[in-house]
Amino acid sequence: MASLRKKGDAYYVRWREHGRQREKKVGAKRLAEKLRTEIEARVLRGELVGATGGQKITFAQLVETWREDHAHNLAVTTRARYEDILENHLLPAFGETLLPHLLTKDIEAWKKARAQAVRPSTVNSEIILLKSLLNRAAEWNLLQKSPAKNVSKVRNQAQPYRFLTLAQVHAVLNAAQGQMRGYIAVGCYCGLRKSELHRLKWSDIDLDLAELRVRERKGGRGAIIPMNDHLVQILRAHPRHIRSPFVFHGAKGDRGLANSGRPWTDRRAAFEKALAAAGLPNMRIHDMRHTYVTCLIRAGTDLRVVQDLADHKDIRTTMRYAHLVDEDRREGVQRLSDRSSSG
Fold this sequence. Notes:
Blueprint: E1 3-7, E2 10-17, E3 20-26, H1 29-44, H2 59-70, H3 76-94, H4 104-117, H5 120-139, H6 166-175, H7 179-190, H8 194-199, E4 205-206, E5 211-214, E6 223-226, H9 229-236, H10 268-277, H11 287-298, H12 303-310, H13 315-342
Antiparallel strand pairs: 1-2, 2-3, 4-5, 5-6
Helix pairs in contact: 3-5, 6-7, 7-9, 7-11, 11-13, 12-13
């Protein structure tokens, strides 16, 4: 593949062609990156001597080139989400497949299997990335057309908001073990998204000031979130890794020594185990965020403050939770009436 380096005020693109090292000086970085992309596309098509033929490119090789050329242009949150999708789902499914052998029916079969395992919005996020990668392959003439072109998204039926009461939060925290206790506490008491939870570092937490910093949220902004006394107490007792900066980290016995200290990716099974231990029904990890918002509203927090704490761009999103709480109150009052009539 081609490499890019800067020397003085100029950029240099270096690659091998006909068995010899080639280098070209380019003034602007943008033009140098464009040239490198063009050269790597020629390498992938097998146009340069010693390169793999166009018919022998695997999906994994396509991903590697895409990472080199485009990953650095993505926001931190987007890059982390894409890497999670690639490493845990797309590469295990298609990594060793030669691009010309990747058929629409294979993608449809994979989509069907994924739709049975996870929610539609998760599958659709993976489909979007897969389509983007294969469209890039078509642009580079590695494929005549993308086999994912006519693959449709999974129909996403609106899911009802699920959330815990404060008493249920306390119950699951008492039942949770190890790092999962801190994970649930931060999720329910600070309302972090899953990606924010997994990227959280100890340098983002000030236990003395009872504050937690989110470096980059969904819209690219940062935020400082106050922590309650219970959360501070739980985090003071939270198990730390001797070398890892991450609050929620892999341990030695967790999928091998190589994962030790790395940030968490998917902890759905352990999360559901904690819910079951507390005698609570299954819910999604994201529902801890719903719990945070509804608990704030139930406590009488001003909706504008809730909107800011929850990082809602639109107050109407916050209002949906307020309506849920209102409906909950009405049902409670109605139950009083039902008991009166039965007595």
